[in-house]
Amino acid sequence: VKLMRLGPSGAERPVVRIDDTTYVDVSDAVTDYDEAFFGSGGLESLRTLVEERTATGRVESFGDERIGAPIARPHQILCIGLNYSDHAAETGQTVPDEPILFTKSPNTIVGPYDDVRIPRTSTKTDWEVELGVVIGRRTSYLDSVDEAREAIAGFVLVNDVSERAFQIERSGQWSKGKSAETFNPTGPWLVTPEEIDDVLALGMWLDVNGVSRQRGSTATMVFDPYFIVHHLSQFMVLEPGDLIDTGTPPGVGLGFDPPVFLAAGDVMELGIDGLGTQRQTVIAPR
Length: 286
Ligand code: ZN
Fold this sequence. Notes:
Elements: E1 2-6, E2 13-17, E3 22-25, H1 35-39, H2 42-55, E4 60-61, E5 67-68, E6 77-81, H3 85-90, E7 100-104, E8 109-110, E9 116-117, E10 125-126, E11 129-135, H4 148-151, E12 152-159, E13 162-163, H5 164-169, E14 184-191, E15 203-208, E16 211-217, H6 225-232, E17 243-245, E18 267-272, E19 276-283
Parallel strand pairs: 6-17, 8-14, 9-19
Antiparallel strand pairs: 1-2, 1-5, 1-14, 2-3, 3-4, 6-7, 10-13, 11-12, 11-17, 12-14, 15-16, 15-18, 18-19
Bound molecules: zinc ion (ZN).
Zinc ion (ZN) binds at residues 79, 128, 130, 160, 245, 247-248.
């Protein structure tokens, strides 16, 4: 299934996408796509409900309603750095022996078509198309990488927007440059794993103002989603609904010579095969 949330920011309702034009409203049966939903086997009961409703024609058409992030605000957003061999090369860094972990504030999540706001004093706001992994069950100390498959609810497109000066030049942790408001556009939908043939063969792209910037594939990931979930579970408890941004392919603004950064009025468009597309307008600081 493909989960979506429609409606105004902060008041989205859960639906299930059927195709480009239609969806099934499940908001009378599901409170939200949140920890309680994923942690209580909600995905399984949802499948039955959606089959019943499509069979009886309880299907609606998408209008011009806002599309929100497909998951409620999670407990945590964990991010993996330098996880594409070709992106590590572009930044002149070596591929790490272990996944590089940083966090992003959970309140960075916005919808896939919402504005992205440049933070105050920013000079180096940058883009990162990424495969997001959503956790499906409480997960701790997994014994094997294979067990991680059972811990994943689905995959989602994310833009790990980053302020490079805050991230790199202001000392301390990368989180400083990753947690500004609106810095994690998410969606348009969460797709469950059985609907993706091979999560390690998905094309991914990002354009700014119609200019091609990122082109890549999940095939060049250093640590795959299962390895990452197993690895992280050795250090912390992952909760249902938690989001992991798994790293970005080449073509970030920092990697160009000279570097290219975002300004108010710029438009980012991005996508991953099977996960839909996003479009954000960049707006000025508060
Ligand atoms: Zn990233």
